[in-house]
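Morning!

This is the sequence you dropped in the shared folder:
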Amino acid sequence: MYRGKTSGANSRSDTQAFYFVLDILLYKLYNISMKTTLTDSEIEALRQIRNSIMQYGRPPSVRELMKRLGYNSPRSVSYLFEKLEKKKIITRTGRDIKIITDFEGDDSRVNTVDVPIVGEVACGMPILAEQNILDKIPVSLKIAKPPYKYFLLKAKGDSMNKKGINNGDLVLIRQQQTAKSGDIVVALIDDEATIKEYKDLDGAIALMPRSTNPKHKPIIIQDDFMIQGVVQKVLTGLGA
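The structure's back. Tokens below.
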């Protein structure tokens, strides 16, 4: 009798364990089925929406997105929006679009923003004027962090090589017009962009080279310059 009872108890225990494991598996399968996956076209649409919000402070219009995605009809874009709304990825209020949730799948293209590479700065022209933009490359949002705007500038010469900025390197710049002492900045002097360390001299500003080359000297200025941004990262080997 004792063995019979023990066997029955073990049997019940095994059954309970089986159903417990089954419940866990079913729960995991349910969660997997509920995860949102996106098509390639939806991923690219989201990336373009994020690009526009970061670069211009607004989402793209239907016609702008149609052009960027290579569609022939605005209805195709509207249909994309409808699918993203149904998947609870975006919300729309009039022309305003917000990305409201995360999703599963290949989201690497969404989690980047196209950052413009700026070439020679034309006289009197804003540094990010269309004529100055040579190309754009996708940069991770972990590096080019919202809500700031960014641009890439190719370094010239060796005046900042002690800071790891060498001739030809691409330098990621966060666009802003102010800086604090010690920041590495892009300053516009006589319509030429230069990368230097910013030093506040209490009434004057010094733009300091940090170089192994003694020919580079500090530039002392007052109000005859403009700060274009602060260096965030040096992308060595990409500027060739």
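Headline: The radius of gyration is 27 Å.

More detail when I'm at my desk.
O.
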